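Our working data are protein records whose layout never changes between entries. Instead of coordinates, the fold is spelled out as a row of discrete tokens. Here is such a record, shown just as it appears in the course material:
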Amino acid sequence: MAANQANSHPWFEVCHPRPTAKYQVFIFPSAGQAGHYYREWDKNFPEYEFSIVIYPGRGSRFGDKL
């Protein structure tokens, strides 16, 4: 999935888009874990692009039906 596609999808938040990344990692936060915890991972792993899954009722999708 290209970074611009992930950014336009309500289920995914791309931490920092990297079109030249070797790997794309999808993070599924555990119950009660905030997705923003993972936003800084890319500083230590520049060859990766991290996409956080945003669940309904959480974060930017707080108003979505469960």
